[in-house]
């Protein structure tokens, strides 16, 4: 026999559950609501509030089931209408989270269809719009991404606003609409008191770099490093994320120093980057590898380049996985040392490697990689001055022809 509960205790449990719901302490509210449901199994308000604890924790399948159970009970038409709306929200939310799981596994086609279905069920599903925006942004379909981001209703949670504005800035920057990108990045910068989007400083540096305001770019990239350093003071921050951010910092700063003609600092920074990477205190990011390596090659730092070769530092790293930097390094060292037969063999290996890599269905065409590397293959145009760069393929083809001629003579 169940022990009878006093009305006073019952009222206290009701008040406590509502207070916890208001405080968004859903897990604790759930424990009390379980007790209330044991005492009053036919009370629809208890079941309604219990279902809400799951919905607000994004446990949509459980919430969906509980809300459907509510419809079996005798409830007012007003509550029934509200429950039916919540059932649609839960169904839409469930599809959204299933799509997110697939999105995180780099699937593309199926998440889009799931997210579109989620939006069809619940057009107010901001999460579905946001993830659709992210997917289209990743697919370089920036106008579609912008449409989804713009369709997200203004949220009271500033963190969510910042994320949407930041992504809008990235889309417009990728489309070379710097003035519009700056508007969104400025919003983030002025409201990001908790340093939730430290990369905004990086993109400000890029925007002014494109305007050839290199000293301003240097100031912004230093602000980026300061923001990343502040972020790592949080004990929960990921040290690998820090290394990835620092690789971006080095890549940008090397490019800025080269643009302003400070070759000494560019070379020093390139060496420091590789030294840290070899000590596993820096990510060997392909873009940064390419930038740092380029600074060393252009300024003929042969002793250090031979050091990198002996340490096998560049094995397995290329520009977008298409250019074998380790083989190219051996080619230019052999050429510099006058070993023309060996250099020719290595340069030909580089070209054959790229041809083979471009057979991958997801790879750019060989022509784009070989002749238009700095313009067409580069996903982002950050810290890149195409006018100052000789297309990689022209450079290698020229060396192959020169070496063949030298060997014949």
Which descriptors apply to this entry?
single chain; about 400 residues; mainly alpha; two-stranded antiparallel sheet; elongated
Verbal overview:
The chain has 21 helices and two strands. It has 409 residues and is mostly helical.
Briefly say what this structure is.
It is built from 21 helices and 2 strands. It has 409 residues and is mainly alpha-helical.
Layout of SSEs?
Elements: H1 7-22, H2 26-39, H3 44-55, H4 60-72, H5 77-103, H6 109-121, H7 126-138, H8 142-151, H9 158-174, H10 178-191, H11 200-210, H12 214-232, H13 239-259, H14 263-278, H15 286-298, H16 302-310, E1 318-319, E2 323-324, H17 325-336, H18 340-357, H19 366-371, H20 373-377, H21 392-408
Helix pairs in contact: 1-2, 2-3, 3-4, 4-5, 5-6, 5-7, 6-7, 7-8, 8-9, 9-10, 10-11, 11-12, 11-13, 12-13, 13-14, 13-15, 14-15, 16-17, 17-18, 18-21
Q: C-alpha Rg, in Å?
A: 29 Å
Number of contiguous helices: 21
Name the helix and strand elements from N-terminus to C-terminus, one letter apiece: HHHHHHHHHHHHHHHHEEHHHHH
- Regions with pLDDT < 50 over 5+ consecutive residues? 374-380
Shape: elongated
């Amino acid at each position: 026999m169940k022990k009878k509960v006093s009305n006073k205790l019952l009222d206290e449990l009701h008040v406590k559950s509502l207070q916890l719901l208001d405080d968004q302490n859903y897990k604790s509210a759930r424990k009390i609501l379980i007790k209330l449901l044991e005492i009053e199994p036919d009370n629809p308000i208890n079941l309604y509030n219990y279902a809400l604890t799951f919905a607000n924790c994004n446990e949509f399948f459980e919430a969906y089931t509980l809300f459907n159970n509510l419809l079996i009970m005798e409830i007012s038409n007003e509550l029934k209408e509200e429950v039916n709306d919540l059932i649609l929200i839960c169904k839409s939310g469930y599809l959204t989270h299933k799509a997110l799981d697939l999105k995180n596994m780099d699937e593309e086609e199926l998440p889009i269809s799931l997210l579109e279905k989620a939006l069809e069920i619940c057009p107010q599903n901001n999460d579905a719009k946001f993830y659709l925006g992210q997917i289209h942004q990743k697919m370089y379909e920036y106008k579609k991404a912008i449409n989804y981001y713009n369709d997200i209703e203004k949220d009271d949670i500033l963190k969510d606003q910042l994320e949407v504005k930041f992504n809008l800035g990235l889309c417009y920057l990728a489309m070379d609409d710097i003035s519009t990108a700056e508007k969104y990045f400025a919003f983030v910068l002025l409201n990001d008191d908790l340093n939730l989007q430290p990369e905004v400083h990086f993109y400000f540096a890029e925007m002014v770099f494109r305007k050839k305001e290199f000293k301003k770019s240097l100031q912004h990239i230093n602000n980026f490093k300061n923001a990343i350093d502040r972020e790592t003071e949080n004990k929960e921050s990921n040290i690998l994320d820090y290394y990835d951010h620092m690789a971006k910092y080095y890549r940008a700063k090397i490019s800025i120093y080269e643009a302003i003609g400070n070759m000494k600092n560019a070379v020093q920074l390139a060496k420091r980057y590789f030294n840290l990477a070899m000590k596993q205190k820096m990510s060997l990011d392909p873009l940064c590898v390419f930038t740092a390596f380029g600074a060393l090659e252009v300024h003929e730092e042969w002793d250090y380049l031979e050091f990198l070769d002996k340490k096998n530092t560049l094995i397995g790293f290329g520009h977008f996985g298409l250019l074998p930097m380790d083989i190219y390094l051996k080619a230019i060292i052999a050429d510099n040392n006058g070993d023309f037969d060996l250099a020719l063999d290595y340069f030909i290996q580089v070209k054959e490697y790229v041809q083979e890599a471009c057979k991958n269905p997801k790879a750019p065409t060989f022509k784009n990689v070989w002749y238009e590397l700095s313009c067409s293959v580069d996903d982002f145009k950050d810290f890149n001055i195409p006018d100052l760069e000789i297309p990689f393929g022209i450079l290698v083809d020229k060396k192959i022809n020169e070496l063949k001629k030298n060997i014949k003579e």
